[in-house]
Amino acid sequence: MVRTRSTDTDRPAGTGTGTLDREVSYRARNRALLVAVGGLVLAPALATPAVAESAHKGGGRGGSGRTLTVRSGETLELTATTTVTELTIAEGGAISAPDGTRLTLTVNGVETGSKLGRLTDGDGGVATAIAAGTYRGTVVLDVAAANDVTYNAMSFPFRQAVYVDADGVDESRSVPSDVRGGTVTDDEARDITLRSNGEAFNGVYVTGGATYRLTRPDIAFQGNGRCDFVGYGAAVVGTGAGTNLVIDGATIRNEGVVRTAVIADATANVVVKNSTIHCADGDHVPAEYPASGSGDTRYMITVPWMLGISGNVRATNLLGASTRASYINSSISSEKWGALSVDGGSNCTLTAINSRVANTGGQGYGSYAIGNVTENILGCTYDVGDYALIHWGASAHYGDSTRAAVAALNESLELGLTASELRRLPERATTIRAGRFMVLWYAAGSVLVDGGTQVDTGETTFMCKAVAANVTVDGSRGARLTPGNGVIFQLMDTDRPSSVAVTGKPWSTEMLGTYTEPTTAPTRSATWDTTTAQSTDARAAFTDIDLAGDFYNAVRGGGNASLQGQNLVLDFTRSTVRGVISATSTRHRVATITIDEYRQISEVANTPGDVVNNGVIVTLGARSTWTVTGPSYLSSLTLAADAAVTAPRGKKVRLTVDGTPTAIKAGTTYTGALTLTVG
């Protein structure tokens, strides 16, 4: 049993004293180091630190009334956990722990003093040392068994308040002095409070096939983490095959560079419900970090500016192979960068049900998906700075949290919701408010929008960078798309600058690329067929919906074997569409985009024109009508027997095929150089 005492649970570490009469109870494996308190072993040939002992000399973690001073030039090695009332480390002094162990300082129950190395250090700067200074109160120097985690050949020396594996809580790898209030057992931690204002300290680390619950944890970490591709410095990590972690009623508020809230990794199943999570940017990006950022995921601590956004912390990350993370009846927000991320993994599943997903700083995404991800977004509210989704290869569904849909996910994803919880979850439609686009595609994948989903974007709804996007929108239950700039689908060449390789740095790439607007006309490909749909085309199908907006294909093609051309294939069933549907050319607001113009990525104006390698293939299916509002250039147009092409009231629409005026008749297919005008 461990008792900690402090009068002010939020007092800054290193100041004040007092008492806390709440009890922390551990039922866990003991560790010998907890018993052997106070062993001091000096490094060879160094002066003896000054240790003053009061008349009261206690044992264990309860406090000893001692002071400890480490002078400049001294290195003190602690072989066991040590408690004092005052610790002074002079500049040039250091405290260490034996090989195979890790040292953590807490003051009045708050992890503090830990300072990461420089990114350019030989180990990547991932080791921490206790900063010089004077610390007063209940000062615990905790010596715990190492928990080193390897990622891309780099070893990260984790330290965590609570370490859990298949056998329960392993106190030998934990830092109990950081745990205040509540109860910790082998199955559950309930009502605990965790605080850190040091760097790269983790809260709860669950691994090794453990089944564990975190109930009403209160976690607030301030200070930098180092790598969110492994969760170094995160509030909660669930990792490893067979690991099942449920977080219920949590409040997690972190502030710092890559000081992530929740990490799910390595085939774990992490379920977060009834929780509030927010991560704010840090003020202190390491000085040695390149201003342009790095694409090397071992070192990446700011969002790649090529995505058109900024920020240095995302609230969550989902990693590894076949890992699952689910957020239910929760609020997940980041200041910028991203709220829900899937990165560095494959075949993962991200689910959000009846949750709020937001960026509070005016930039960022709701979710990021790479590596054949499945995303289920049901009954959620998105208030995001730029994009609901950055799409690097996923299958994403935005719909209603119907009882049937939630029950199916509860079973297939092992969410563990009880019958009572399922009954209490209200059925809701998804609402998306995005400052720029709903979806930004950089790799092939699908998006389904159905139910009563309402999508309001500041600019284009669907932005696709020359990949095989596949969109399905079913408006039969009220789904609606409202693009702020009047463009529903923009297909265009990628304008994302590339990272460049660097030498003489521990990171392998820097984001120094530049995008330059082409100045020549595209060259027509001799091999690309603009009149027939192909597997590499971008596609969108709309049923039972009224649409007001334009559809553009600006892919140039013809310049290389990998992209001779790309078509935009549009199908409408029992739908109306009012707008321009056309091949087009695009022009950015600026001719050259570097990091200084990062917000100009994807910002283009369209000029409709003849099809070159950018076919536009339109099918107006049953009971569908297209009202043409401006010149539109197609390569194929098919009308069902009851479909129609019309003009706005008081005007007429005219069609030419290969320059020949042609009557528009239902039940007909037209191919070639099609031009529709109104007048």
Architecture overview:
With about 675 residues, the chain is mainly beta. Helices cover about 5% and strands about 45% of the residues. The protein is built from 3 helices and 65 strands. The strands form 9 sheets. It has a 33-stranded mixed beta sheet that branches. The chain has an 11-stranded mixed beta sheet with strand order 18-21-24-27-30-33-36-38-40-43-46, with no helix packed on it. A hairpin with a 2-residue loop joins strand 9 and strand 10. The chain is elongated and about 95 Å long.
In short:
With 679 residues, this protein is mainly beta. Helices cover 3% and strands 47% of the residues.
